[in-house]
Task: inverse folding
């Protein structure tokens, strides 16, 4: 059993921890047995050393053990970003989740309040009228009846309270920005996961694979977005059939036009919610295009489309038929009753 002082010494020598060492340190931290200064030293030490795939995968396994779980279908997908890309866009993965759920793919959406933007997933859903502080059984009912349920991260990861204050005081990205999105409380094994930096695309995909992900796209836009971007190329690491491949995609691959980041700019939750409602009403915009693009990829992950073009056609159908709008209405209804 490695204690936290032993871990700090090893990290200070720029040596990676083994999986077992990482698991024991994470257990100490998550059980509230580490001091704030030890947690801060550990997180910054890891960041300076550089977190290995093995360390990330081991840390995720502890977070998953300690989370409050939700029942969901075996083939559920999570569409989630690390946040912290600093772009302050409209809510892309939240809108994407609604469109994907409309096509009959169960979505177990994991999310939080805004990190670096003005409006995170939970902020915009609340502005739309979705109740987010739900018990696991009500969330399971949302997934069963509406096709989508939202899991508010702090409610499902109570052990994270031991690191929260230190993370706020550090004010910089740490290992935990990468762990939360990989720790889906519904045990989803299919992921469409956006990361805030290109260097994390392959390591996060490798960590998901180590933790039994069946299918995933881990993505980062060349413009910095933690989504597939319509402003230019995006980097992808894909998990399929137990192996990992990396490639680039562009909006043209899905038959979509390019946009600028200014076209995708968001504001407060009320503004972003209004734009999301417009999108579901069928209004054509750069926002619609980027949501269709990300939904297309999610349909590939879910096994519902073989190409981005076909996935984009399916996404457009779900919006234009009114099914995506009806899915949101159903989620609002079930979450409030």
Result:
């Amino acid at each position: 059993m490695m204690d936290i002082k032993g871990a700090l010494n090893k990290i200070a020598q720029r040596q990676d921890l083994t999986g077992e060492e990482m698991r024991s340190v994470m257990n100490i931290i998550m059980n509230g047995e580490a001091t704030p200064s030890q947690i801060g030293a550990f997180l910054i030490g890891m960041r300076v050393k550089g977190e290995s795939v093995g360390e990330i995968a081991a840390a995720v396994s502890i977070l998953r053990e300690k989370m409050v779980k939700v029942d969901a279908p075996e083939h559920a997908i999570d569409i989630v970003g690390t946040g912290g890309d600093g772009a302050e866009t409209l809510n892309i993965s939240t809108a994407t989740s609604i469109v994907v759920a409309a096509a009959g793919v169960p979505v177990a959406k994991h999310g939080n309040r805004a990190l670096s933007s003005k409006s995170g997933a939970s902020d915009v859903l609340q502005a739309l009228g979705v109740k987010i502080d739900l018990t696991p059984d009500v969330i399971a009912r949302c997934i069963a009846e509406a096709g989508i349920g939202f899991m508010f991260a702090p409610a499902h990861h109570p052990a994270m309270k031991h690191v929260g204050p230190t993370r706020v005081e550090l004010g910089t990205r740490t290992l935990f920005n990468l762990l939360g999105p990989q720790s889906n409380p519904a045990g989803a094994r299919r992921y469409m996961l956006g990361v805030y930096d290109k260097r994390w695309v392959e390591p996060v995909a490798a960590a998901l694979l180590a933790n039994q992900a069946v299918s995933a796209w881990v993505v980062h836009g060349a413009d910095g977005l933690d989504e597939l971007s319509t402003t230019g190329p995006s980097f992808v690491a894909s998990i399929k059939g137990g192996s990992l491949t990396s490639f680039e995609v562009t909006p043209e691959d899905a038959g979509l036009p390019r946009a600028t980041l200014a076209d995708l700019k968001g504001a407060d939750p009320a503004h972003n919610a209004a734009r999301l409602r417009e999108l579901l009403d069928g209004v054509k915009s750069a926002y619609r295009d980027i949501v269709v693009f990300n939904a297309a990829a999610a349909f590939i992950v879910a096994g519902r489309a073989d190409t981005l073009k076909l996935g984009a056609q399916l996404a457009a159908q779900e919006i234009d038929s009114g099914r995506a709008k009806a899915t949101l209405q159903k989620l609002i209804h079930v979450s409030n009753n």
Notes: The chain has a mean pLDDT of 96. DSSP finds 15 helices and seven strands in the chain.
